[in-house]
Design a protein that fits this description.
The complex is a heterodimer of chains A (251) and B (196).
Chain A: E1 5-13, E2 16-17, H1 32-42, E3 47-51, H2 59-72, E4 77-80, H3 86-94, E5 99-102, H4 104-108, H5 111-120, E6 125-134, E7 137-142, E8 147-152, H6 153-163, E9 167-172, H7 184-193, E10 198-201, H8 207-215, E11 221-224, H9 226-229, H10 235-244
Parallel strand pairs in A: 1-3, 1-11, 3-4, 4-5, 5-6, 6-9, 9-10, 10-11
Antiparallel strand pairs in A: 1-2, 6-7, 7-8
Chain B: E1 6-9, H1 16-25, E2 31-33, H2 36-40, E3 44-47, H3 53-62, H4 65-68, E4 76-79, H5 81-85, E5 87-90, E6 95-96, E7 101-107, E8 116-121, E9 138-143, E10 145-146, E11 153-159, E12 161-169, E13 172-175, H6 183-194
Parallel strand pairs in B: 1-2, 1-3, 3-4, 4-13, 5-7
Antiparallel strand pairs in B: 5-6, 7-10, 8-9, 11-12, 12-13
Classes of the chains: A alpha/beta (251), B alpha/beta (196).
């Protein structure tokens, strides 16, 4: 049976993981390769690396990091952040990334999705969408949630699928950081609307939240950062819990 | 095992790096090549692939590899699109394949989400490729087209229907999943191939 995926997300800057990583048993909590190997060992089904490096010149360090991670890791991983051209994607895939995640650049230039899908295959194109619910409407935001677009979430996701997105990574800004659970009602609506996998993001606080997003939210995968980095939830116990709820997971 | 000459066929289709790194983790330094001479002289050949079938077949033809691959006599392992190209034909862009397996590659119906993406279980395992792998272990799949179950099926998987997770005919082996991305299970399968 196809299993539900658990995906830790790592923020990287200048080739090192940053923000909210608290691992006492690692020699160096900032070492992305070591952290990736740890999560793979724990049973993570995939990893996402989000590059928050500000400047263009620093991109080289990201490519070097992707290469180092790919050399060590035997599970799939996605790289996101600052990708705006097919050339950017080619470089990352050649370095060993399995998928790329695009966000703002796809909203600004939707044809980027189809360009990437036809050149590299839909399977490696993850379209990440940040949206906020306000005044009865889900609105898409850019630049890490700082810029409102006026675009309706559901319209945009249908468009992304039509253009060839292989997966949707949906982050609810209303839920992100609250630790009160994922945006399950909206996730379920998205999951029924499109025929590609939906990754739930934003709001994980405990194991029950993951079960809820797989059952009520109909999500195909769930992504989280801090609950894993601070060991509030450990992947083996999370997966055992999900299994006890009859949710198919890889153990 | 480490002195073997393993050649990964390079035809500009797909994630050759991951396969190369996976072999390097096993202590092997593979050769990545599209040269007929180099491929012919390999002890083992790996035929990976990610992307679109018609485009990939054109790329093989451009390098004369469409004629070479079916003639190879050493163990050959096709991975993902590589496996699909080893079949007779594919519904993807009505592509004619290499004809090693007399099978037609079909598209999944939209009964469930397509692509079939993620970790799924390997069932009904047969043969040396799956030595040491227990039935119902998980491997990583990403594909929209599938090879039906046939007498060449070495292992099956279920998504919408039972399909071939792996094939074998004579010296030709193939996996629909990505052993290079399938954790410890994938490592075992790659080791088994190298030890054939």
């Amino acid at each position: 049976m196809l299993s539900k995926r658990i995906i830790p997300c790592l923020d990287v800057k200048d080739g090192r993981t940053v923000k909210g990583v608290n691992f006492v048993d690692l020699r160096d909590a900032g070492d992305a390769v070591e952290l990736a190997a740890y999560y793979a060992e724990q049973g993570a089904d995939e990893l996402v690396f989000l590059d928050i490096t500000a400047t263009h010149e620093k991109r080289k360090t990201l490519v070097e990091l992707v290469q180092k991670v790919a050399k060590e890791l035997n599970i799939p991983f996605t790289v996101g952040g600052g990708i705006s051209t097919p050339e950017d994607v080619g470089v990352l895939l050649n370095a060993g990334a399995d998928k790329v995640s695009i966000n703002s650049s796809a909203v600004r230039n939707p044809n980027l999705i189809s360009e990437l899908a036809s050149r590299f295959g839909s399977q490696c194109v993850v379209v990440a969408v940040d949206a906020r619910f306000a005044a009865g409407k889900w609105e898409v935001y850019l630049n890490g949630g700082r810029l409102a677009t006026g675009i309706d979430l559901f319209d945009w996701i249908l468009e992304a699928e039509r253009l060839g997105a292989g997966e949707i990574l949906f982050t609810s800004m209303n839920h992100d950081g609250t630790k009160n659970g994922f945006a399950n009602e909206t996730l379920a609506k998205l999951s029924e609307m499109v025929n590609i996998p939906i990754i739930a993001s934003g709001g994980a606080g405990n194991r029950e939240h993951f079960a809820d997003t797989f059952i009520e939210g109909k999500a195909d995968a769930a992504l989280a950062a801090s609950v894993f980095h601070f060991k509030e939830i450990e992947i083996p116990s999370l997966k055992n819990y999900l299994k006890s709820k009859n949710i198919p997971v890889r153990i | 095992m480490k002195d073997q000459k393993i050649v990964i066929i390079d035809y500009d289709a797909g994630n050759i790096q991951s396969v190369k790194y996976a072999l390097e983790r096993l202590g092997i330094t593979p050769i990545v090549s599209k040269e007929e001479e180099v491929i012919r002289n390999a002890d083992k050949v790996i035929f990976p692939g990610v992307g679109e079938a018609a485009w990939a077949m054109n790329s093989l033809r451009k390098n004369g590899l469409d004629l070479l691959i079916p003639q190879l006599t050493q163990p050959v392992l096709g991975i993902c699109l590589g496996m699909q190209l080893m079949c007779e034909s594919s519904e993807e862009s009505n592509t004619k394949g290499l004809g090693i397996f007399p099978l037609e590659v079909k598209r999944f119906t939209n009964e469930r989400k397509v692509p079939h993406m993620g970790w799924n279980q390997l069932e009904k395992l047969n043969g040396a490729l799956f030595k040491g792998v227990v039935a119902m272990e998980f491997a990583y799949f990403v594909h929209s087209y599938y090879v039906p179950v046939s007498e060449d099926t070495l292992a099956s998987c279920n998504y919408i229907l039972d399909f071939s997770a792996s094939l074998q005919k004579n010296n030709f082996y193939a996996c629909q999943f990505h052993p290079e991305k399938s954790g410890a299970v994938g490592v075992q399968i790659l080791k088994n191939f190298i030890n054939l």
